Amino acid sequence: MTASPDSHSSPISPAVQTAKPNDSALPSSSRPFTLSVLDQAPVPEGVSSAQALRNTLDLAVLAEHLGYARYWVAEHHGTTALACASPEVLIGPIAAATKRLRVGSGGVMLPHYSALKVAESFSMLNGLYGGRIDLGVGRAPGSDALTAAALQRDRRHTPEDDFAQQMQELLAYLWDDMPAEHPFARLAALPGDPAGLQPWLLGSSAQSGVWAAQWGLPYMFADFIHAGGEQIAQRYRQQFQPSTAGATAHQGVAVQVICAETDEQARLLASSYGMRLIHMHSGRRLDTIPSVQTALRFFEEHKLPISTLPAGRRAVIGSPRRVREQIEELAQEYAADEVMIITIIHEHAARKRSYELIAQEFGLPQCA
Q1: Please, are residues 86 and 75 in contact by the beta-carbon 8 Å criterion?
Q2: What pLDDT shows up at residue 22?
Q3: What is d(CA 300, CA 33) in angstroms, rounded to the nearest whole number?
Q4: CA–CA gap between residue 27 and residue 62 (Å, rounded)
Q5: In this structure, how many other beta carbons lie within 10 angstroms of the beta carbon of residue 15?
Q6: What would you report as the CA-atom Rg of the chain, rounded to the nearest whole angstrom?
Q7: Distance from CA of residue 256 to its chain's centroid?
């Protein structure tokens, strides 16, 4: 793949292949796609949560140097294994430490918040950091039921599912398009600068794809949560309606990727991720991301291959060449404009090396 131009010029970053972006006439195998990063701020065994946050800043600076297009931080609550409870708190320091990278949320779990508060916060961030902020929005709780209840201001009853109305209100604030008859139509303009702020819809279900198409938003499908969203992506493209966010569909897919110099090394590193997922699916809790040694003892005790993942979970694991082949195949299946890579590895150095090897294999343009 050839070098991509500077992503600061457009909210939807240019692709890393030479071809017209968003050209549906192109055969799937030759469609361009961008490479980006999703970070859940994993807390490794033996490492403090504060250090995990510093690791996120370190990785973001490296991602910019390596040529990745954007860097998103997730929102998860009630878990000590991931130090990412507030993406908007992380976005500011990441954007301050970088110059070119688009920085955003992957994503803000809107049902927990006021649409106005989210719009104000991200408009301020966008004003501070030169119009390179992304607002990725999701409707999942990002937590267990008890933590979700604790996040609510009004706990007298279970909140109604009014995500569609919340999202439409949020977009009306960002696009200064509130209907005149709406009770909030006369609210003051947003602080900061919403111009260039790019809203996205995130999801792992058919409904999220329908909404993304209806509202004309770029859409990021979480394949690492629910593999097999190709038909959802296809429907999104077919049903897409142009909007203030863009004239054409922009399909992203987020996938777990672990890369090392050899396939065997990558499988060893992936044992930590596999052990964590197995515990999650069985209802057990791990306070941190286990070390490779801890994971190997677990798999040996339970007589499981170290590459075991729970049903329905997909991960791209292997040497640079093998990883590239799998990412390109996944991008073709989704007809993706963008592939967002999430990497859960115990050792921070190994996680950085994984992103380095991928960037080198794809020929991303390094920045000074």
Answers
A1: yes
A2: 38
A3: 39
A4: 33
A5: 22
A6: 20
A7: 10
- Cα–Cα distance measured from residue 151 to residue 149, given in angstroms and rounded to the nearest whole number: 5
Q: What is the pLDDT of residue 13?
A: 59
Do you know the residue count of the chain? 368
Burial class for 43, CB neighbours closer than 10 Å (0-12, 13-18, 19+): buried
Distances in whole angstroms, Cα of residue 319 to Cα of each of 143, 267, 324, 326, 338: 33, 10, 9, 11, 21
CA atoms within 13 A on the CB side of 214: 10
On the 0-12 / 13-18 / 19+ scale of CB atoms within 10 A, 358 is: buried
Contact 294, 279 (CB under 8 A): no
Reported as a single tens digit per residue, the pLDDT across 137-191 is: 999 765 677 777 777 777 777 777 899 999 999 999 999 999 888 888 888 899 9
Question: N- to C-terminal Cα distance for the chain?
Answer: 20
Question: Strands 251-259 and 315-318: what pairing?
Answer: parallel
Tokens describing residue 252 = 């992203």
User: What is the amino acid identity at position 348?
Assistant: H
Query: Beta-carbon neighbour count of residue 209 at 10 Å?
Result: 25
pLDDT tens column, 22-53: 333 344 446 789 999 999 999 999 999 999 99
Q: How far apart are CA 63 and CA 23, in angstroms?
A: 27
Q: Compute the distance between CA of residue 4 and CA of residue 253 in angstroms, rounded to an integer.
A: 19
